[in-house]
Design a protein that fits this description.
Layout (H helix, E strand, L loop, with lengths): L4 H12 L1 E2 L2 E2 L7 E3 L7 E2 L5 E10 L10 H19 L2 E12 L6 H18 L2 E10 L4 E10 L14 E5 L4 H14 L9 H12 L5 H10 L3 E5 L3 H12 L2 E5 L7 H7 L3 H9 L6 E6 L4 H10 L4 E8 L9 E5 L2 E2 L13
Parallel strand pairs: 6-7, 11-14
Antiparallel strand pairs: 1-2, 3-4, 5-8, 6-8, 9-12, 9-13, 10-12, 11-13, 14-15
Helix pairs in contact: 1-3, 2-3, 2-6, 4-5, 6-10
GO molecular function: thiamine-phosphate kinase activity
EC number: 2.7.4.16
Pathway: Cofactor biosynthesis; thiamine diphosphate biosynthesis; thiamine diphosphate from thiamine phosphate: step 1/1
Length: 348
Amino acid sequence: MVDGEFALIEQLQSKLGGGGGGGGGGGGKGVLLGIGDDAAWLDPAGQSLVTSMDTLVAGRHFFVDVDPADLGWKALAVNLSDLAAMGAQPRWCLLSLALPVRAEGYSQWLQAFVEGWRALAESADVALVGGDTVATDGPLTLSVTVLGVAEQGVMRRDAAHPGDLIWVTGTLGDAAAALDLAFMVRSMPGYDFACSAAQSETLEARRLRPDPRLDFGRAALAAGVACAMDCSDGFLADLSHIVKASGLRARVNLEHLPLSPALRDCIDQDLARLQRWPLTGGDDYELIFCAPPSLTPSLINIAHSCALPITAVGQMLPADPQATESVDIYWQEQLLALPDIRGHQHVF
């Protein structure tokens, strides 16, 4: 590694590190000892610890020419979204970077990466407290571990009940549509995608900089929501995980899936695109949550306070041993054949 591993660590520590009760990059509360020793020393102050980890590989999870600032944001965001789905408060994170040895140097790259990471870390109040760096002959690879705390349990995917309404935050399908557009631009230069330049920029921004729904997740948990998960592999695939874990069935009305104005114009009531992008596309990092109808007024108030739209898209049903599918998808009261639910495939 041309710039030197220790120099790289020092740069990360100075820009993002939390330690000794302070530190930059979004906090440092509960950090007794951060970057610079053999391990971090943290104090969760009697709360439950909630943790998640994700790995991103160039050429599989992101394009090799991605803006490093966008990559810094998204590498942290996809992990924070897991904590949001549990209703946890993020506190600390670990970052592992495997940097290709063939690179000329990473000073400029790292500066931009730090900029994107720090923008989200500061708003989420999360501190980088350790990790690892290594030179590799393979592709650029990032592994991020986030640690959060919870005071009153967490939301789980196995806690849905018959009669619960199925809700989603924000809108669905923007990232999947943007990814299709990105592939088309790379493989078919000059391809005329069915949306304007402004619309495609909006979709791409949602793909590159998802907004983890941390405030809503914590408030929903406090209000009594017991079941949630983040929507990263596609709405249908992720709802199917909830259905299976909870031992139930579900009915979803496809026309109720929330769409951004940019995506709605691109879809234009095309049923195939509705199934491809908002239903089975991935990378949205919204929340799917299930709650009894009695919580609806509270949830609407929470959504309003978070300036975040939420939409009821279906309902959980009792298990039916005779049913061939665990999720029924309806379009204008007509039952549709279930599309492929393998979920978002991270293959470029």
